[in-house]
Each structure stands twice: as C-alpha cells, then as structure tokens.
Amino acid sequence: MPAYKRILLKLSGEVLAGGAQFGIDAERVQGLAQEIAGVTTAGVQTGVVVGGGNIFRGVSGAGRKMDRVTADHMGMLATVINSLALSDALEQIGIATRVMTAIEMRPVAEPYIRRRAIRHLEKGRVAIFAAGTSNPYFSTDTAATLRALEIKADVIIKATRVDGVYDRDPLQFPAAVRFSEVSYLEVLSKGLGVMDSTAIAMCRDNKLPIIVFNLNTTGNIMRVAMGEPVGTVIH
C-alpha cells in the first residue's frame, strides 16, 4: 500500500546522461521510465521535475561571461528537452503523460496551469513540469518545491548519486556521516547543500517533507513511495 497519495520526483539532468558527461542516454531514460511507471501503476499520483544540467547549466553559462538571464533561459529550455525525452519513454510503455511548461510553447507542450496539472494527476497521468519557474535566478530545486506546493504533493523525493544527506560530501570524504533524519534548519545552518537554500526554506515554511535517496539503486523510487526507510528525511 503506497505511503503517499501524491509525490513530486525531482531528477537532475545529469541522471539522464547515464555514464556520459553530456546528452541523453536512451537506456538510462528507459530505466527511469520503468521505475516511474511502477509507482504510477501502484496508484501514486506522480509529478516530475527534471533539471537541464546534462545539456546546459545557467550558472556555469553565466560564469563564462554570458548574461545570467540569457543563460538561465537556455537552462530552462534544456529542461524541456529532458522532459520530452522522459515523456516519450513513459508513453512507449503505456503510461500517459503531460509535459507542462512554465514558458509557453504550445506546439511542444501544454502551458502550466495548476488546476489542469492536478486534473492530469487525478486521471493517473504523469505530469512532467518543465522550464523551471520561467524566472531567471531560480533553480530547478526551487521550481520543484513550488510545483509540489501548488499541486499539494505529500512529499518531495529528490534523487541523488548518494544514499541520503551527509555531514559532508561522501564522494570526497569516506568518513562522512549519513543522517537518517535531519531538520530544515540543520540543512540551512550547516550548509549541507542537498538543495538550494530557497527551496529548503520554502519547504520549511510550508511543512513539506523532503526525502533524499540514491537513484542508482534500482527500485528505490518504489521503496520511497511505499514508505520504506530509504535515504534521509528532511522535516
């Protein structure tokens, strides 16, 4: 029995690249689609936000002396490409989806309308939210939090390369300690870096829990949806 009625899954763009540094790995996307399909088939209403870092990062673009607003808009368009790829993989295995964009592009995807998004979820479709918030200077973490609050998701589940939140980067420090639970305030005060501070503060102010888990372990999306103790809970 699912532990949650409605979830918001946050994926980084890099996840779609698989083992490559850039681009989209078709096999990796198909594997993700299978996992999301399993959760949806189990009756969990699923919204998804995908980053665009495998194609373009606004922050790094600005670092190369590109105008930050222009760079961020390019990053938003990258998230649309990733969202379409994930949508196609889900549709190919029989899961109905809707890609909804914060930047209007009607021939490509639906414009984001909150009530319509909720209706798609109620009908069992996977709603994939693209183009961030449409505003520069806001990350896809913040976009995921905003969409989760708007659709009244029970939880944000954030997929990462590690199995939870640590006191420091476990990929660099083997002695890093993992938290099973941690408060929003600790994440902010200790600069744990699992999501940007704006997203964490929004979750804190609205009492929206976050579960951080390792996407590289097959079946973890389903385990989180079923309420199994996977990863770290931020609350």
Compact overview of the structure:
The protein has 235 residues and is an alpha/beta fold. The chain is built from nine helices and eleven strands.
Radius of gyration from the alpha-carbon trace, in angstroms: 17 Å
Put simply, the count of helices is 9
What is the helix content? Answer: 25-40%
**Total beta strand runs:** 11
**How much strand?**
15-25%
As for the number of domains, it is 1
What is the CATH C level class, in words?
Answer: Alpha Beta
CATH architecture, please?
A: 3-Layer(aba) Sandwich
Mean pLDDT reading = 94
Q: Which structural category do the helix and sheet elements fall into?
A: alpha/beta
Spatial shape: globular
Strand order of the largest sheet: 4-3-5-2-1-6-10-11-9
* Low-pLDDT segments, ≥5 res: none
- The CATH homologous superfamily is named Acetylglutamate kinase-like
Question: Main sheet, how many strands, which sense, barrel?
Answer: 9 strands, mixed
Give me the CATH fold name: Carbamate kinase
